[in-house]
Amino acid sequence: MIVEAANGPTLPEADAILERRDIVVIPDILANAGGVTASYFEWAQSRQGFAWEGDLVAERLRRVMSAAFDAVVGAGPRDLKVTPRRRRCGGSGSRGWGRRWR
After folding, report:
1. How far is residue 98's CA from residue 71's CA, in Å, rounded to a whole number?
2. CA 74 to CA 9: how far, in whole Å?
3. Residue 18 to residue 27: CA distance in whole angstroms
4. Dihedral sign, CA of 8, 10, 16, 22?
5. How far apart are the first and last CA of the chain?
6. Which of 16, 21, 82, 102 shows the smallest number of beta carbons within 10 Å?
7. Between β-strands 2-3 and 25-26, what pairing exists: parallel, antiparallel or unpaired?
8. Per-residue pLDDT at 101
9. Backbone angles phi, psi at 90, to 5 degrees
10. pTM of the predicted model, to two decimals?
11. Which of 62, 17, 72 is nearest to 38 (CA)?
């Protein structure tokens, strides 16, 4: 298993090689999402002017990350042979730079 901890550390051309070797790649957008989401929660608390309880932060983060994981790793029928890395780009295999993420 490879976890893309940096932004875009592997090229799309590597997908075929990694797939042939049955190496699962957790895409950068998913690997880094927890820290980004927690930062957003901190910003939201600051804007609201009060701190959330730690259990509330943990539960919200768990829900967001579970949904993100399901959307990237568990999305789509397996017979399409779309890797998690390609799913994060909408299945195109491109890096997705400049795309508008929804």
Report:
1. 20
2. 22
3. 13
4. negative
5. 27
6. 102
7. parallel
8. 35
9. 80, 20
10. 0.61
11. 62
Retrieve residue 79's tokens: 């017979």
Contacts of residue 29, Cβ cutoff 8 Å, sequence gap at least 6: 72, 88
- Tell me if residue 80 falls in helix, strand or coil: helix
Please, what is the Cα angle at 73 between 68 and 77, to 5 degrees?
Answer: 120
Helix (H, G, I), strand (E, B) or coil at 26: strand
Segments of 17-67 assigned E as strands: 25-26
Question: How much is the pLDDT for 99?
Answer: 36
- Supply the pLDDT for residue 83: 62
Phi–psi pair at 31, nearest 5 degrees? -65, -30
- Digit-by-digit pLDDT tens for the chain (102 residues) are 888 888 888 888 888 898 889 888 888 888 888 999 999 999 999 999 999 999 999 999 999 999 888 887 776 545 445 566 665 555 444 444 333 333
Question: Which tokens belong to 56?
Answer: 């509330």
